[in-house]
Amino acid sequence: MQNTAPTGTPISVVGHEFDVNRPKRLRWIPWREAVLLDFKSMIAWNAGDHSFTFRGGHNRISGKRSSITVSSIIAVKGRSRYTGSGNLVPPLSNRELFLRDGQICLYCGKQLPEHMLTRDHIRPLSEGGKDRWRNVVTACKPCNHAKGARSPEQANMTLLAVPFEPNRAEYLFLSNRRILADQMEFLKKRFRNGSRLGVQT
Ligand SMILES: [Zn+2]
Question: What is the CATH number of domain 94-155?
Fold first, then answer.
């Protein structure tokens, strides 16, 4: 089946029994998977403003070309393997961490390109600190070096913001650079109250 949608553009999916309070059910899926879901009649409803048509081969008898149209936001039927279970913690990676902090060093406030930033453990790993969202911040190399294996208090350095663990919608926002306007609106409604994410974009 040929893909006529912009390559790499994702779709966000919610569980069929969608509940605003359970944003963990959201995720990006490849277009191909969305097409497959539609083919299997697994799409409960469409919520996106955008739709894309994928064209397949010609029917040997009718000569008609098959096509499937999928929306930029879809809900999948049932409690499938897509919905996951438990309280999922988004995976921690430097790219999403730096984006969470607006690519700003949370010690000196400088906004820098990704390659000039580092992951700082507020409570150092050597002191029993964990490699988790709430214990890590974006830091420039000089600040990270100056802080060393000390806590901010010990190093007499002040954090400019409180690190947080992104919820599912926030993580989906952080993990994708090409979000369609309707998907952005959909995700924003599910950000934590007072979230600073997406303000600058
Ligand atoms: Zn700095």
Answer: 1.10.30.50
CA 159 to centroid of ligand 1, rounded, Å: 10
Q: What is the model's pTM?
A: 0.78
> Ligand 1 mean position to 107 CA, how many Å?
5
Higher pLDDT among residues 22 and 160, named by residue? 160
| CATH 1.10.30.50 location in the chain | 94-155
The pLDDT tens digits of the residues spanning 57-116 come to 778 888 888 888 888 888 887 654 444 445 578 899 999 999 999 999 999 999 999 999
Ligand 1 centre from 134 Cα, in Å? 18
pLDDT digits (tens, 9 = 90+) for 93-106: 999 999 999 999 99
CA of 72 to the centre of ligand 1 (A): 39
Q: According to the 3-state scheme, what is the secondary structure of the chain?
A: CECCCCCCCCEEEEECCCCCCCHHHCEEECHHHHHHHHHCCCEEEECCCCEEEEEEEECCCCCCEEEEEEECEEEECCCCCCCCCCCCCCCCCHHHHHHHCCCECCCCCCECCHHHEEEEECCCHHHCCCCCHHHEEEEEHHHHHHHCCCCHHHHCCCCCCCCCCCCHHHHHHHCCCCCCHHHHHHHHCCCCCCCCCCCCC
For ligand 1, the distance from its centroid to the CA atom of residue 102, given in whole angstroms, is: 13
